[in-house]
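Encode chain A's predicted structure.
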Amino acid sequence: MVPRNSQISRAWIFLFFFVSGATGLIYEVVWTRLLTQIMGNTHYSIATVLTAFMGGLALGSFFGGKIIDRAFNPLAAYAILEAGIGIYCLLIPSFIELAFPLFQWVYLNLGDSYNQTSLVRFLVCGVLLLIPATFMGATLPVLSKFVSSDENYIGKDVGTLYSVNTFGAVVGASTSAFVFMRLLGVQTTIGFAAAANIGIAVIIYLLFKPPLKEKLEYLTPVDKVPLLHKRELLILLSFAVAGLIALVYQMAWTRILSLLLGSSVYAFSLILTVFILGLALGTVVASRYLTGMSNLIKYYGLNQIIIGLSSLSIIPLF
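Encoded structure for chain A:
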């Protein structure tokens, strides 16, 4: 059995992950606004932020899962990640200012080549944002090991954890542009989100005092991870393609709504809100009925068909 301080600590974890999800999407919208002055076009800044954000989440999930399977305590590792996110994101505006001489050099020496200047700006800004996004991606596998103690209920436990984080992201996406940035400004909004991340880390160490090194043992230990077969690899590949298409939808819908709302930042915030709300609702429903589904591949295929048909059907509505 996974040792936990109490059920109250488990409730605290869900609260922390809700706040963490909100701050992540606040950063995403704020970064879009910051990069507009560098990229010169809001849609390019959105594409840069989405690429770095999603790439970081993928890297963080991959490496976070490998690292946490060692002797690290998940709660301590999560606190370190939250502190790292807050401190780094607080410094991002300064990092961007430090990069301005590089951008000036690019304009002076590569100004005749639009593609080259755009590529340099994309790479520099993408690398800056990739680091905190990787920390964010690592939080899910880290906390998944803390909340899930029975391999028979991993789908439900991780699904609940992910949905809580996603609902927090909905709050962050909806309030970032329409509330915080309008009332507080960009810099203060970044400071508010960073304070929340750092506050989570401080509360964890003050209340729970988790040791850095403590290997949690499961009810059913798994010594070896089975190799994936060709069928499973094909499903994972199709899942990657589905993720690519989802981001294409997000960019296209943002472009369309920016014509209606008059601002790409507001359109991006709105699309993120609806997009992530759908992810959260889908996760909640699917995790509840996951154990009762006999043919998961069939339901996955039907789900992809419904996504494609529904996306086609809303084009006349736009």
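Confidence is low (pLDDT under 50) at residues 1-7, 218-222.
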